[in-house]
Design brief:
alpha/beta; three-stranded antiparallel beta sheet
Length: 554
Amino acid sequence: MIYQNYPIRLFKIHRVESVHTFTYMKTYFAYTRVSTVKQGTQGVSLQEQKSAIGHHAQKNGFVVSEWFEETVTAAKTGRAVFTNIMKRLQKGEADGLIIHKIDRSARNLKDWAALGELIDAGIDVQVSAESYDLSSRGGRLSADIQAVIAADYIRNLREETLKGMKGRLKQGIYPLKAPAGYIDNGSGAYKTIDPIKGPLVKQAFELYATGQYSLRSLNKKMNIRGLRSSRGGNLGKNGFSRILNNPFYYGKIYIKTTGETYAGGHEPLISKHLFDQAQRVLAGKTYKKETKHNFVFRRTFTCKSCAYSLIGEHQKGHVYYRCHTSSCEMKTIREDTLVFAVDKVLQDIPLTEEAIAALRQGFKSIKAQTNELVTTSTANNRLLLTNVKARLERLMNLFIDGKVDQEAFDAKQLSLQDEVDSLEEQLRSPESNIGQILSRVEQFLELAEALISGYKTAPDDFRGELLKSVTSNPTVTPESVDIPIELPWLLFMNALSVPFSGPLRDRPRKFEVGPYCGPHRDTPRPNKKHSDALAEWTDHVLAELIEYFTDFPT
C-alpha cells in the first residue's frame, strides 16, 4: 500500500494485477483548546485532546492535514485561531474538522451556530470524545443540547464569580491586581502598602497637589526616584493619570465597569483631602506650570489692554515684564517700576506695630480656646463613630435575616460607611477643618507683620505672596499701574464701615475705633479708653478674618 500526496487531497493507490485504482481520502483540520496559557504549559489537557483526536482519526481512516492549538477561553467570540479555521474550511481547504468535545470548540452559542453553518454546507465535523452523527437530525439535536448546556455553564460560572467578587468587595477586599504602591496577599486578603513603592506614590500625590507639576514632569521626576511599573518600565502620563484618579489610595474601592464604590478594608496611603486636592489640579482649577525662573511678580500682573499675563525675563542686567501680544500697545515694563508702585500701595495700608501685637495676642487666645473645642469635638466624634458602627452591624444582621432586600441594604450600607469614613478621617486629623482656617489666619497675620517690619527687605517669593494676598487683579497700561486692594486687607483700610456679619454681606455697620488703636488713628472716641477700643477692634478684625477664611479657605 502506497500513499501519494496530490495537491490538497490524498489518494490511496491500489495495485491489483497491474491495474491502478484511486481511493479518495478525506483530510481534516484538528483543533485543541485550553482556557489559559498556564493550562497549556503546565497541564496535560492539550496532550490528552491531541491523543484522543489522533486515535479517532486513525480508527475512522481520516487524515489530519493540519493541527491547530489555542489557549484562550471559549466563553467569548472572536478567538483568532478558531476564526481562521472557519474561514479556511469555508474556502474548502479541508473536508472536515475534528474536535475533542463540544465545549472545547464553543462555549457560546454564536460560535456553535457558525459550526452549524459549516455542517449545513457539507463540512464534516467530528467529535472524538462523543459518538455524535452530526449529519443526522438526532445527532445534531443531541449536540445542540450539549452546546446549550456548555453556554449555560459559562453563564452560571460568570454569575457565581461575580457573586464571589461582590462578596469580597462588601468585605472591603479588592479582588483585582493591586495598584501601584500596594502588594497582593492572595485573593481573600487585603492589599498592604508596598514599603518601597508606597511612599513614592504618596510623594507623587503630594508633588502633584502643589500645582507645580504636569503629568509629564511628574512622571520624569518620580521615574528618577524609582517609581516605575511592575515590570520596571516607565509609568508614563497615562500611568500617573490612573494613579491620581484612583480612590483606592484613600480607602475606597471603585469598580469602573459597574460604577459602584465600596469601602476598602486596606490601609489608606493618603488622606481624602490630599486626593481631592490632586483632583482639583487634574481638573485644571489650580494647575500652575512649572517654571525655571521665580520672578517676584510671576503670573501676577496682567496687561489691561489684552488681559494676558505679563511674562518676566532678564535683559541687560534688569528684569522686564513683557506683553507677548504682537498687536498690543503695552510692550515692556521694568520690575523696578512695579516694585515702586507696589511699595506705595502697601505703605498706604494703615497698620501699626501695636495693632499687629494686639492681633497676635488675640489670635493666641482664640487658638487656645479652639484646641479645647477640638478635644471636645474629638470625644463627640468617637461616640458618633461607635453609634454609626453599631447601626451598620444591625443593618448587616437584618440583611442576613432576610428583613432587608439587596437594593435597600446596598444603599444604606454605602451611606453609613461614608459616615464611618468621614468620622475616622476627622479622628485621624481632628483639627483639619478649623486648623486649616486658623493656619490661614496665622499666615495672613505673618504677612501683615512683614508689611510692618519691612516689605522691601523680605525675600522675593515672600514679597510676591504678600502682593497676591493684597490684590487679585493688578493691571498695567503704558501710563499706569493699577493695584486694587481687596479683602481681607480692606478690613484695615475701611474699618469705619465694615460689612455686617461677614466681609461679603450687604448690610453695613459702623465701627469706630479710638485714637492710636487702629488704622484710623485720627478718629477719637472720647467715651472709651484706649485699651478697650483696641480690644474691641482686635476682636472684630479677628472674627472677620476667621469668617473670611472660612468662606474662602484658599
